[in-house]
Design goal:
79% helix, mainly alpha, 411 residues, globular
């Protein structure tokens, strides 16, 4: 691989990439308004914890129902056109909540319908988004590009809820969703301005295959490739174990560190800061170390940083470790994404990322429930955090000795 410094590589990222970055960062900022407003809107309509939980269900369900089909379909269409159309439709769907509210017919069931449709559309958009990066930048700049994208997304996710919290003082809650609708229109416009195609290879031959054959081709590639078979198994385990530490953070901070509400807010802000900083230095780290070291190493560090706070009651240790843990987590994400974008044939990228999500995301909710049950039974949340941290460290270390630990040999 050519020896580019991250600053040189960043300077050489082309204008099409920055158009893409701008549109997607603004879209993420808009979506953070919706992520803030929808739970509040459901609570105001129902006051029910069950109704709030159902929102998660209707958001995840499309991946289980349509993930394989949509992932296969994305690889056989014009990806950029698909993203533009998806953005326009999502803008209309999100804006419908304000329309229904104005005419006096807004109900929680309409919100569920909107969440379900939006999540379904997002499956296709995300798959095409993931596959677009190798078409926009040269291979040696993929880690830099992913780092800049993650930094932009993370910054938007930090400032979006803060802005939404201020705007709610002067705007009715449903009107905040119009900001998200507008951000989808901006995203669509930015994509139209990009000159390059997001399909690096001709799909002519694949268009003659039926959907079952296309899905089968993607699954065979994923499960027969040593690196991605290992990655899928790793994510299956990590997604089962690790979410407990994020889901229970407020309880952990309150019970184990006697944290105030302000201190909990600092934790989330610190996590966002860690994500942004480590996203920006991802390229420099990739210049120094291999994908195998960065993937396994960042996950091992994340495990250790989950373990350490369980051994102290000092809040500053929790804050510091959470900042660094969030950074290690985004390094893991950036490098796994970049590895796939560099290794997987472009015509399979949409399927591979979607299929991995379908096969591994379903364990997260089950693991989070079992983690909560373990806390209730043991009455010792620090013990659960310690076990989670040790398991993640051990799993990451074990997978370093699989093909995932030295993926360059499989290139």
């Amino acid at each position: 691989m050519p020896a580019f410094s991250s600053l040189e590589s960043e300077a050489q990222l082309n204008s099409d990439f920055w158009k893409f970055w701008t549109g997607q960062t603004i879209s993420t900022l808009g979506s953070s308004f919706t992520n803030f407003a929808l739970p509040l809107l459901i609570f105001k309509l129902t006051g029910s914890a069950l109704n709030l939980a159902l929102t998660v269900t209707v958001t995840v369900l499309p991946y289980l129902l349509f993930g394989l089909i949509v992932g296969a379909w994305v690889d056989n269409v014009d990806r950029k056109r698909l993203m533009v159309i998806t953005d326009l439709v999502r803008a209309l769907v999100i804006a419908s909540i304000q329309l229904v509210f104005v005419v006096g017919y807004l109900s929680v069931w309409w919100i569920y319908v909107v969440a379900f449709i939006t999540s379904t559309l997002t499956i296709g958009f995300d798959a095409a988004n993931f596959a677009a990066i190798p078409a926009l930048v040269q291979q040696e700049k993929i880690v830099i590009a992913n780092g800049r994208l993650q930094a932009g997304y993370s910054t938007a996710k930090v400032f979006g809820p803060l802005l939404a919290g201020l705007l709610i003082l002067i705007l009715p809650l449903p009107e905040l969703l119009l900001i998200d609708a507008a951000s989808f229109l901006i995203s669509a416009g930015s994509l139209v301005l990009i000159h390059k195609s997001f399909n690096a290879a001709s799909n002519e031959e694949r268009k003659q295959m039926n959907i079952t054959q296309v899905i089968g081709e993607g699954l065979r590639y994923l499960l027969s490739h040593p690196i991605f078979r290992s990655l899928t198994l790793l994510l299956l385990l990590v997604n089962f174990i690790l979410p407990t530490s994020s889901v229970q953070l407020v309880l952990f901070a309150k019970q184990w560190f006697s944290a105030s509400d302000t201190q909990i807010g600092l934790l989330y802000a610190g996590g966002g800061l860690g994500t942004v900083v480590f996203s920006l230095i991802a390229g420099r780290l990739r210049d120094r170390w291999s994908f195998g070291i960065l993937i396994s190493g960042s996950l091992m560090i994340e495990g250790l940083l989950t373990l350490v706070p369980s051994m102290t009651h000092w809040y500053l240790i929790l804050l510091l470790t959470w900042i660094l843990r969030s950074g290690a987590d985004v390094l893991f994400v950036i490098n796994t994404y970049s590895l796939a974008q560099i290794t997987v044939p472009n015509q399979l990228l949409g399927r591979v990322i979607t299929f991995i999500r379908v096969l591994t995301w379903s364990t997260a909710s089950l693991g989070a429930l079992l983690g909560g049950f373990a806390i209730e039974q043991t009455k010792n949340i620090a013990l659960v955090y310690a076990v989670v941290g040790l398991l993640i460290f051990t799993i990451a270390l074990a997978f370093f000795f699989t093909p995932l630990g030295h993926p360059e040999r499989g290139d």
